[in-house]
Design brief:
Layout lengths: L4 E7 L5 E7 L6 E5 L4 H4 L1 H11 L8 E7 L11 H11 L11 E4 L1 E2 L5 E2 L4 H10 L4 E4 L4 H4 L6 E4 L3 H8 L31 H13 L3 E5 L5 H5 L11 H13 L15 E2 L7 H5 E2 L4 E2 L1 H4 L4 E4 L7 H5 L2 H6 L1 E5 L4 E5 L3 E6 L20 H8 L4 H5 L3 E5 L4 H4 L8 H19 L12 H7 L4 H13 L4 H18 L6 H11 L8
Parallel strand pairs: 3-4, 5-8, 8-9, 10-17, 10-18, 11-14, 14-17
Antiparallel strand pairs: 1-2, 2-4, 6-7, 12-13, 15-16
Length: 510
Amino acid sequence: MFARSYGATTRGVDGQLIDVEVDAGFGFPAFDIVGLPDTAVRESKERVRTAIKNSGVKLKQEKVTINLAPADIRKDSSGLDLPIAAGLLAAYGVLPVEKLAGSLFAAELSLEGECRPVQGILSMVIEAKRRGLTAVFVAPANVNEALLVQGIAVYGVATLADLVAHLKGEQELPAAVPAPAEELQAGWADDFADVQGQYAAKRALEIAAAGGHNVLLVGVPGAGKTMLARRVSSILPALTPGEALEVTKIYSIAGLLPRGGGLVTERPFRAPHHTTSMTAMIGGGSIPRPGEVTLAHHGVLFLDELPEFQKSTLEVLRQPLEDREILVSRVHASLKFPSSFMLVAAMNPCPCGYQGDESSGRTCECTPGEIKRYTRKISGPLLDRIDIHIRVPRVAYKELTSKEKAESSSAIRARVEAARRVQEARLQEYGRFCNAQMNHALIQRLCPLDAAAQSLLAAAFEKLHLSARSYDRIIKVARTVADLAGKEQIGAAEVGEAIQLRNDVGLQTD
C-alpha cells in the first residue's frame, strides 16, 4: 500500500500542463509517463532520472506518474525533459511549487544534467506570453531566439543544477538581454550586374519582384535561366519586422535556424531538387511539418527543370499559389501553414532543349509526341497560375564578352521598393501588401483601365481564349508595370506588356 501521495504541476512546451504524482512505499523506483507520449518523450524518464542524480539531488525510491495534459494530443518533443524534471523536483518538495507558477520550461536534458536546445522555441515563447506567463527557462543556445519576444523574462539555463539553485534562491540566474544588432552590409554574392544581356528577362523579373508575381523562364540550355532566378532575391524588398518574425517562427519549428541564431533577416530562397516528393513539397508527416512551400514563405520558391518534377508534386502547388496557405490534415493533427511565396520556375522548351533556337545552328530532334510528353506535366491550370511567361534566348557573343557592367541589383531593387511602397499604401487597409495578392473585387476597385487599355484587353481575351484567372492576372501585372512607371491609371502600353509577358512561350500542355 502507498504510504502517502503528493504532487505538483509545471508548464512545458506549447503551454502543456505536466502533472507529477509521487507515491511512497515502493522499494524499487517506477517511472510512468501518460498522455500520448511518443518514443522520445517516453525515453525522457531515463534522461530525467539520470540528470537529477548527476545534478547532486537525491530522491527516494517511490513510484512516479507524469501526466501530460491534454491527454488526447500526441507529445513529441524532447523539450519536455526540463519541465518534467522541474515538476518532479517540486512534487518531492526540493523546489517550492510557487516558484514554478507563471513560468515556461523547455529544454532537453543530457545524462549529465546539461540543457540542450530544442526546435520551435519562438512559437512556444509567443504562446507563453499570450497566456500571461512572465518567465521562460531555455537552453543557452535557444536564448537569442526566445529574446525575439518582448515583454517576457528569458533565462538561459546551462544545467539542471543551475535551475534548482535559482528556484531555491541559492544562486540567482541573470535574465538574458538582447545582443546589439549587427549592421548589415549592402551587397549580394549574386548580383544582376554580373548578367550580360538578357534585357527582356531582367525586365520581366523586375516586374515580378515589384508585384510579387510568379514567373516561368523558358529557354535553351546555358542561356542563363538558373543564374537569373538565383538573383531574384537580390532585388526583393527587405523583410518587414512582422515578416521576419513569421519566417523565423517557421524555420524554428522546422529546426533550420542556426545554433544560437536569432531573427531571420533575409528573404528565403528555396530550390528543391526535382526528385522532391509531394509530401516534402507541401508538408506533412504523421505529425505535419512545414514543406518547401512554407519554408519559402515571404520569399522565393525556385523550381529548376520544371518538367522533371513528378506531375503529382507540381499539382499540389495549385492551392497554395491561389490561397497563399496550405491545410495539411493527418490522423493526429490538422494544421494550417502559411505559403505566400513567389514562384520562379525554369525549363527547356523540349527534351533536347533546342526547339525554336535558330541562333545556335542546332536543329531540334524531338518529335511532337516527345515534346508533348515532356511538357504535359505542367498542366493548364498550373500554368494559368503563373503570371509571367518569358523566353530566355541564347546570349550573343558580343554581349557575353562586353566589359560594360550591367545594371546592379541595388539599382533595380530601388525601383522595386518604390513600387512596393505605392502598393502597400493602396492595399494596406485590405490586409494585402503587393499586387499579386489582390482578388477580383480589389482588381475592379483599384485597377482602372483607360479606354484604349480596355479595348486591347477585350481583343486579347477573345483572340487568345483567356480564362477569367488569366484576365485577372494580366491586369495585376499591368498594375505593377504602371506602378513602376509611376502611373495611377493603367494604359494600353501597360496592358500590352502584361499580355506579351503572359503569352510568350507557347508551351504544349494538357
